[in-house]
Amino acid sequence: MDGWLFYTLTAIVSISEAVILLVLMYYYFVSIFGWKKHDEDKDYTPEKRFALITAAHNEEAVIRYHIESLKKLNYPTDLFDIYVIADNCTDKTADTARAEGVIVFERFSKQRGKGFALEWMFNELFKMEDRQHYDAVCVFDADNVISSNFLLEMNSKLKQGYRSIQGYLDTKNPRDSWVTACYATAYWSMNRMWQLARFNLGLSNALGGTGLCLDYELLKQYGWGATCLTEDLEFTMKLLLNDIKTGWSHDCRVYDEKPVHFSQTWRQRTRWLQGHWDVALRYMVPLLKKGIREKKWYCIDGAIYLFQPFVIMAMFINMILAGVAAFFTEPIYVAAISSHMPGWFWVAFGILGYSYPMLGLILEKAPRSAYLYYITYPIYGLTWFPVTIVGLFKHGNQSEWAHTMHTRGISINSLE
């Protein structure tokens, strides 16, 4: 029995360490291609016609500033229409939006969540085809403010042949609390070292829920069908299974309001992980099979991205085993559950993991205050362990939609 337990624990530690190292080294390798931003040949001549769609649930406090930024887009006004979905609202979101002169659709349904609201709105657009023609649809959240060049950049990307595009996700309230500061530093680094890197490598980028642009005929051809708690991730993987990669637009920004309090970020990230586990368990294996069978690395890369929660769990298991090893006195058990890499290696790896994302901040010319924010980043990072575990146990419930309250009404004038 002792021998069986020894070999079992040894195998668990060895396999988990190997998985962690392989995945992390792959991500470090990919990130290198984000160090340089290459010039693109862009055609900014306005041509494409857009439907701008914003899903809003009780966003009375911020919707006016969002619409203000859309009205100030540097693009011919006859080439875009603004639609607001007042989704199960009990406040004055719909009235406020109408007062701003945009098209408002009110939706009341027991099916709650952004994914359902978008699917409903897309179907409403399809019904209007005899009166309105669009080349693409852009999706936003009601708390966003959008850079004035957004449609010019998306117009250019569509002309280049991209059918699914994600814009740069920025933060409009990085100084509100240590939580928003951590979000901001994470996004600045991720935009450069993860999204731009993938774009430069010719891999698929990930849709981020807002600031995205989809070819109209693409939506008609494949349908939306993404109604889990992370509808953006689900649709990204659905497109990959149909050989459609998502592009990246680094030069237009969507400023997103991040949660101020830890309780808010806990709920939000738990929802993200619930959705991530759900999408991973449904799409990871099909993407991996497709990638191997058809020799398409971008499908395998998508599967690796979906594998992230498993890596976090492997890290957590190793941490627990390392802690348990400290309480054992019998050498055989200590040898089985202790790390098989030398201690200095993990210390060096930890320092690299903490300091490396700073390169993204430097390359993105983040404000000096970002480096002060970074002091608290390890706390934010460690909370991913319990969030991932809770998300796993709750992943079967994709109807548990939790609304994040938005209150920071910030004009685009103060950001641009």
List descriptors.
single chain; 416 residues; alpha/beta; Spore Coat Polysaccharide Biosynthesis Protein SpsA, Chain A; 8-stranded mixed β-sheet; 8 strands; 53% helix; 12% strand
| Biggest sheet record | 8 strands, mixed
- Computed structural class: alpha/beta
Distance between the termini: 67 Å
CATH homology superfamily name: Spore Coat Polysaccharide Biosynthesis Protein SpsA, Chain A
- The percentage of residues in β strands lies in 5-15%
The total domain count is 1
Q: Round the Cα radius of gyration to an integer and report it.
A: 23 Å
Q: Count of helical segments?
A: 17
- Main sheet strand line-up: 3-2-1-4-7-6-8-5
Low-confidence stretches: none
Mean pLDDT: 88
According to CATH, the fold-level topology is: Spore Coat Polysaccharide Biosynthesis Protein SpsA, Chain A
Query: Helical amount among residues, as a percent range?
Result: 40-55%
Order of helices and strands: HEHEHEHEEHEHEHHEHHHHHHHHH
Shape assignment = globular
What would you say this structure looks like, in words?
There is one protein chain. The chain has 416 residues and is α/β, with parallel strands linked by helices. The protein contains 17 helices and 8 strands. An 8-stranded mixed sheet has the order 3-2-1-4-7-6-8-5, with helices on both faces. The mean pLDDT is 88.
